Amino acid sequence: MGNSEKSDVDINQELLKFRDQIDALDLQILGLLNQRARLAQDIGHVKAKTDAPVMRPEREAQVLDKLTNANQGPLSAPHVRTLFKEIMSACRSLEREVHVAFLGPLGTYSEQAVWSFFGHCVQAEPVETIEEAFRQLDAEQVDFAVVPVENSTEGSVARTLDALVDSHASICGEVQLPIHHQLLTQSGSLQGIQKICAHPQALAQCRNWLAQNAPQIQQETVSSNGAAAKLASEDPTVAAIAGQTARERYSLKAVQEHIQDDANNTTRFLVLGKQQPGPSGIDKTSLVASVPNQPGAVYKMLEPMNAQNVSMTRLESRPARTGRWEYYFFIDLQGHQQDAAVARALDDLRQSASFLKVLGSYPAAQRT
Description:
Elements: H1 2-50, H2 57-70, H3 77-95, E1 99-103, H4 109-118, E2 123-127, H5 130-138, E3 144-151, E4 155-156, H6 158-166, E5 170-178, E6 182-185, E7 195-198, H7 200-205, H8 207-213, E8 218-221, H9 225-234, E9 238-242, H10 244-249, E10 253-257, E11 266-273, E12 283-290, H11 297-307, E13 312-319, E14 327-334, H12 340-352, E15 355-363
Parallel strand pairs: 1-2, 1-3, 7-8, 7-9
Antiparallel strand pairs: 3-4, 3-11, 5-11, 6-9, 6-10, 12-14, 12-15, 13-14
Helix pairs in contact: 1-3, 2-3, 11-12
C-alpha cells in the first residue's frame, strides 16, 4: 500500500509540472490573442474609413490554408482550422458585429452551417423561408445569408436555384456539411408516437430506415428539421428527424442515431453576400445560363470550357418558369473568374448564351 501511495504522489508531482507549463503557455497564448485582437480593431478603424467589408472570405481561406500547411502536429489539420476559425471570428466581431440570416428555426443544419463557416461570434438570425433569407440580404438587413443548395442523396434545392436567378446577391463561400439524421422524441422511444415530422428531403434521405423500423407511423412534412424538433419538444406524440444541434437545443432524446440511408450523406450550403471575393488560390465559379432552343445550342454553351481547359464540376438544368419550355443551366467551374482561362471561357460563353449571370467566385470548401 505504501509503494502504491508513493507512486501516486510521484505521478501527481509529474502531472503538476506539466500543468504548470500549460498554465504558463495559456497566459502567453492569451497575451498573443489580445495582441491579435488589438490589431483587428486597428484594421476595423481603417476599414471604416472606406466602408470596406468586415469579412473577406478569400483572405480567411488563405490564412487557414497557410496555417494548415505550416502545421507539424500533433494537432490535426481540422483541429487547426477549427481553432483559428473561432479566433478569427472573435477578432472579426471586434471590428463590427456580423449579421447572418439562415433557414430557421434554431436547430437546423443551416444554423450549423453558419457556425461552420463564420465561427460562433456572429449574430445568426433565423428566417422562415429561403426566399426571406434572400430578401433580407437584398434589403441589406443582414450582411450574409446561408442557404442549402444541394444534397448528395436528394439533389438540388429548387427554391434556392430559383432565387439565385433573381437576387442581386453574390455567392461568396460554401459549406459542405455531413448530415447525420437522428430520430428524436421527448422520451427517447417510439411508444405513443403518432407522427414523424421532418423536412421533405430529410424524410426522403431516411426512406428505407423508416420503412423498416416505423412503417405504421404517419409522416408529415414541415418547413425544416429545426421546426420538426420544436414540434416534438412541445408534443409527446410527435417524433422529429433532425441533427445533434436540434437535439441539444430542444432537449430531446434519440430513438436512433444515424438513420440516413446513405452514410456519406452531405448537404452543400451557399454563403451569400454583397461582395465579390478575390482569388484565394483554390476557388469555384458558379453561373447560370440559358441558350436558344435550337440544335447544338447546349454543345456550343459547353464548348468554351473545353477549349480553355476549364474543369466543370456541376451542370444542372432547371425550368425557367416562363411557360415556354425554356431552361436555365446552373454550372460550377473550378477556378476564379479572374483566372485567365476562366475569364476567356466566360467571354466565349457570352457569345453563344441568350442569358448569362455569374453568381460568384468564391473559396472552395474542399481544399487540398
